[in-house]
Write a structure and sequence with these properties.
Elements: H1 7-27, H2 29-41, H3 51-61, H4 63-67, H5 75-93, H6 102-117, H7 120-125, H8 127-132, H9 141-165, E1 170-173, E2 176-179, E3 185-187, H10 195-211, H11 216-247, H12 249-253, H13 255-272, H14 274-280
Antiparallel strand pairs: 1-2, 2-3
Helix pairs in contact: 5-6, 9-11, 10-11, 11-13
Length: 289
């Protein structure tokens, strides 16, 4: 794009950006600290650190569209902004911070701030970068615990079946796998059940869909396929691990390193497969950055 933003637009966008960032840090400081602690202690949320930066890049992508929007602050948005502030301050004062809702509060706060300081149409243009911030929120522990073991068990079942197909008979006990002719036992831990790949593919697939020139329903289908590819990649990783350990004593002795290498390899393949999948859906054209 060759057109440049006017000085007035640049100052306005810079002022709004600084306000949103400063207020977010000040108002959500304790909540961001709590979320950061979860990100730091759980590999499942390791990608969350990049979410704010990706959101800012998506806003930058919309700069030319935003430049043409009129300056028309919304009074209703100001009321919503005040209500969100009251809820946040009230929950802090009552020692009921509701950290699990922090990202939801953050999304509403940023959207209301943009509408109150700029216009509701700006929020309409920035709905995806703002909503993308929701991926910063860790899921409730109860939900993770409810999902973990069924996914472990499912992954172990499929890996045992595919391993047997390739000539490596496997004895499965719950989420544990053992090759019949070897003493090595593989446990499909919660970290290996595909949840981490799932969250990563949602984050990557939704951004890819955002840039696609396609109807909304095709974009939603594309994100669903990206989620499916995360599971497929994880199952291939487990199958490759079984085959590698069953066919090589060296790999058996270096199981963890081999597992990490295969995990990275199959995840990269899954991400790369999104390109031909998008072309197969006839929505492979990407909007210009």
């Amino acid at each position: 794009m060759t057109s440049n933003a006017s000085p007035e637009f640049s100052r306005r966008m810079f002022a709004i950006s600084c306000f949103c960032v400063a207020c977010t840090v000040l108002i959500f400081f304790r909540r961001l600290q709590a979320m950061q602690l979860v990100w730091q202690t759980r590999d499942l949320y390791s990608l969350c650190y990049s979410i704010p930066f990706v959101s800012l890049l998506l806003v930058f992508h919309k700069r030319e569209v935003l430049r043409k929007l009129p300056y028309k602050p919304s009074g209703l948005a100001l009321v919503v902004l005040c209500m969100v502030l009251v809820l946040i301050v009230g929950s802090e004062a009552m020692n009921f911070p509701s950290y699990s809702l922090s990202a939801a509060f953050l999304v509403v706060f940023v959207a209301a701030s943009v509408a109150a300081l700029w216009s509701a149409r700006a929020v309409g243009e920035l709905w995806f970068p703002i909503l993308y911030l929701q991926l910063m929120m860790p899921l409730p522990d109860g939900m993770i615990a409810w999902m973990d073991y069924p996914m472990q068990d499912f992954s172990a079942r499929i890996a045992a079946y595919t391993g047997s197909l390739f000539g490596f008979p496997v004895v499965r006990t719950g989420a544990s796998l053992r090759l019949i002719h070897q003493s090595t036992q593989i446990y499909v831990a919660p970290q290996c059940n595909g949840m981490q790949s799932l969250f990563a593919m949602i984050a990557i697939g939704s951004v890819y869909a955002f840039f696609m020139k396609a109807p909304p329903w095709k974009r939603m289908v594309f994100v669903c396929i990206a989620v499916l590819m995360a599971y497929v990649a994880n199952l291939f990783r487990l199958t490759t691990l079984l085959i590698g350990i069953g066919s090589s004593v060296y790999l058996d002795r270096h199981e963890q390193a081999f597992d990490h290498a295969m995990g990275l390899c199959w995840f990269v393949i899954a991400v790369a497969s999104l390109i031909p999948i998008a072309k197969g859906m006839r929505c492979g054209q990407i909007s210009s950055l």
